[in-house]
């Protein structure tokens, strides 16, 4: 079984290049279903989630050419089959459920297994299904599967009870070919929504307002093939920003969008970290004295839930009390037990974590309970006394490309080993 082993205490220095956003690449890969022409996605990160989704499309008879060296991913869905998809693959990753929108739009039907993913809390698909119904689809839910059918989707006004990223993406793709006008209100505003809308518009869709909370889609007849480069990964960038802070280091991060990172930038500045942005590069100075802060996760443009575990690692080492309130996922404190094993002082009260900063953490055996929790364990291991061993790396590999190599380039003593 593979583990990441870290010997803590090393300062970081140098530059790190951020990969393209996993949460943009995945829906863009799925959106290729909407065009029978070749789609080329540039600089695609080699991630477990990407591999799962590509294999899912192969199962549907999509032609795939993926260069791990260059990151160029070529997809041709001309011979795609409207069949029920591989249940094992669907259960592996929640993003696989996003095939329902474009499959329904292109073929008029889609039957899939109930989706899986990180066990960080309930992420109901009722908003997706409610939207499909408003577009004219008939929905059948059976033992372990969902089937949607519609001879022709028709535009409608859809109000989301919660600004769900997945539901917004699924409905946006479903509505591209719908007859007339579709309006999605209370839509998710994450940068990845804007990126998907921009990708679809580049293919010939007529979408306004993607990423602004109210999206208008005018149905079109077809979409063309294109080459496209998605946005940088704001969560990976945020992870390295926290790395500079937790190790009292100065590093340069290449591949950032200041606006996309605004919530993380402002919280780290409040904490005492100095940040200078120069175009798509950022210098993060974590050498100064740091102060405890309170965090409340919210949908974008609020503080991202995907940065909460990493910030918890940092705050566990800052003198004083910090409070973290998790409002997005009810089960996203599984990393707390692992941090406590390393010596952190954290108490949980419902969806609130109360931290009393300690002077140091001690390395030990821990596990990545989910994707971002795994990143939090790496950050804690970078400063812990002694050696930290992190298991269940498949979670980390779902969202970070060669993370140990990137940290090693910055001077960390970190290796992946078979134990």
UniProtKB/TrEMBL annotation:
UDP-N-acetyl-alpha-D-glucosamine binds at residues 94, 123-127, 306, 328. It is found in: Cytoplasm. It comes from the Bacteria. GO terms for cellular component: cytoplasm. SUPFAM superfamilies: EPT/RTPC-like. Residues 7-406 form the Enolpyruvate transferase domain. It is an enzyme of class 2 (transferase). Its EC number is 2.5.1.7. Belongs to the EPSP synthase family. MurA subfamily. Cell wall formation. Adds enolpyruvyl to UDP-N-acetylglucosamine. This is UDP-N-acetylglucosamine 1-carboxyvinyltransferase. It comes from Clostridium gasigenes.
